[in-house]
Write a structure and sequence with these properties.
single chain; alpha+beta; Alpha-Beta Plaits; 15 helices; 16 strands; about 20% strand
Length: about 550
């Protein structure tokens, strides 16, 4: 196939195929032909191909995390249709890149699984972003190149429906959903994959032949059912190129939502008892999680003291007239119960994933869609390092002390200059609720008994992309913090070493290559628990040549 550059000035390529159809009123085949022609391609193809001379090329070889690039990439394939995705994979194989290609959606991978020096070809599925209802199959669908924002907007505006997915607007659905997916409505509705009933995915067989497959939870073939199940939490980049997700049913979107932001000044925490006062905030959050009901989702932002405040963001959904119910009485009574009622007005930005937004008023009673918009933030493109953990119970005293130590700690670089940790934090999210009503083996998500999901985060900016001494200082801080937090379990949240049965591994959508220092098998067990053997079986069955791989991908054995 001849390579084509996407070069023509004024080409009608800013939207999706769905957008073009809406504007032109033409048949899909006719619209696609026009779209490809405008892009400088030739008839009969559903694929655009960029090389380093294309103006878009450099922008598509870096993701959200500015630490990672693909400096040796030679080509970017952009499928316009799901058939074009299969065509892209065929081109990858015939071009000699079968061992050095990666798939890009939203570009939010925390590690260098997509963008690294070994990557030679990229398949970017961003233009596969349609969301709607398939009458022929009788299901709702979302293509893998769509984002969380695409998902929420189209499901709500077209159908009054929603999914318990993430809140970062630009995160791609391709990786988010197959890793499990969760967000601010998961206590009420479960994980994203708890609603998944079908997947369209391009696989590569042992003869390196690419084929687009449709597998569901009702597939008659056992191997097809295995491939479907592997996408209910098995993580991206493991089994094939996902083009579409399907959902037989969806929850109805809430009508209203209260947004409550609690804030404590670090100066008050330190003066009020330091670690013991911080422990009171943690106890408060645990009480709210266990007794607040499934309509409440909370995010505890334990920001470094140099950020000025610790915050809790609470979203409480409800139906009926605005003001007909309120979570405020419970929120306030628990503050008094735990002796942490000296909250102050929130100030400064709300930092970190999965919610990054301007400072909000302490209380707003919204229509639900307005809350989706307000908390729909990915933050700036920046550099970051992340770690995760699940917890089945509250924080023991030694962990409270460790949290306080690292959030009030000052560090200097090799020249004695202070390291700016004001964008570093431990975020604790409420979990449990409907999530924990599903058996660990029903989906590939093993963690079904936790009450908290933790995300350790540190962010920094440098003038240049890639590694830096500044970044090394931030990474050292988060590594030391994490290792000391889980010192009793071997330096990681390993349930096999926890006699108290509190920690329960890590979240694959928050990948952390540091876990490999404890052995790759241990890292995978932390992500997948008892589901790992079945995921390995799926890998052997559907990707026998290990064409889909990265630093922490599912192995063949």
């Amino acid at each position: 196939m001849e390579r084509r550059n996407f070069l023509k000035a004024g080409a009608a390529t800013a939207g999706t195929m769905a957008g073009l159809l809406a504007l032109s009123g033409k048949s899909e085949a006719a619209a696609r032909t026009e779209f490809v022609a405008a892009a400088g391609g030739s008839a009969g193809t559903d694929l655009l191909i960029f090389d380093p001379s294309s103006p878009q090329f450099r922008g598509l070889t870096q993701g959200f995390n500015r630490r990672w690039t693909a400096p040796n990439a030679a080509v970017v394939f952009v499928p316009l249709t799901e058939t074009g995705a299969a065509e892209a994979l065929s081109n990858v194989v015939s071009g000699g890149w079968a061992q050095n290609f990666r798939v890009r959606g939203g570009g939010h991978c925390y590690e260098d699984f997509v963008f690294n020096a070994d990557t030679r070809a990229i398949i970017d599925v961003s233009l596969l972003n349609r969301v709607g209802y398939d009458a022929a199959r009788g299901c709702y669908f979302a293509q893998a190149g769509g984002t969380n924002w695409d998902l929420y907007r189209h499901l709500y505006w077209q159908f009054g429906k929603t999914l318990p997915a993430g809140s970062c607007y630009s995160v791609g659905l391709g990786g988010h959903i197959c890793g499990g997916g969760y967000g601010l409505m998961s206590r009420a509705f479960g994980l994203t994959v708890d609603w998944l009933t079908g997947v369209d995915v391009v696989t590569i067989d042992q003869n390196d032949s690419a084929q687009l497959r449709h597998v569901t939870n009702q597939s008659s073939n056992a191997n097809d059912q295995l491939l479907y199940w592997a996408h209910t939490g098995g993580g991206g980049g493991n089994f094939g190129l996902i083009t579409r997700y399907e959902f037989a049913e969806l929850p109805t979107a809430p009508q209203n939502a209260e947004l409550i932001v609690l804030a404590w000044n670090w100066s008050d925490i330190i003066a009020g008892g330091g670690a013991s006062y911080l422990g009171g905030i943690l106890d408060y959050f645990q009480d709210l999680t266990l007794n607040g009901g499934n309509s409440i989702f909370g995010l505890l932002k334990l920001n470094h003291s140099s950020a000025g405040q610790v915050k809790i963001i609470i979203q409480a959904n409800y139906d009926g007239p605005i003001g007909s119910t309120s979570a405020l009485p419970l929120v306030n009574s628990l503050l008094a119960k735990h002796g942490v009622a000296n909250v102050v007005e929130p100030r400064g930005a709300i930092i970190g994933h999965p919610v990054s937004a301007p400072a909000s008023s302490a209380y707003v009673d919204y229509r639900w869609w307005q809350v989706v918009q307000d908390l729909n933030g990915s933050g700036d493109n920046q550099k970051g390092k992340y770690k995760s953990a699940y917890m089945r119970a509250g924080f023991p005293a030694n962990q409270v002390q460790t949290i306080y130590k690292y959030l009030t700690q000052s560090r200097t670089d090799s020249s004695g200059n202070p390291v700016d940790l004001s964008s570093s934090l431990l975020q604790v999210d409420t979990y449990a609720g409907q999530i924990n009503t599903v058996a660990p083996t029903a989906t590939a998500v093993w963690q079904r008994s936790s009450i908290f999901k933790l995300q350790y985060q540190t962010y920094w900016q440098d003038q240049t992309e890639g590694p830096s001494a500044n970044g090394d200082n931030h990474i050292a801080w988060i590594r030391d913090f994490y290792t000391e937090m889980y010192a009793a379990y071997g330096g990681i949240p390993d349930p096999a070493q926890d006699q108290t049965n509190n920690v329960d591994g890590c979240y694959i959508n928050y990948p952390d290559v540091d876990l490999d220092a404890h052995g790759p098998a241990t890292a995978l067990r932390l992500y997948y628990g008892g589901n790992l053997p079945r995921l390995i079986q799926a890998k052997r069955t559907w990707d026998p040549n290990n064409r889909f791989h990265h630093a922490q991908s599912i192995p063949l054995a």
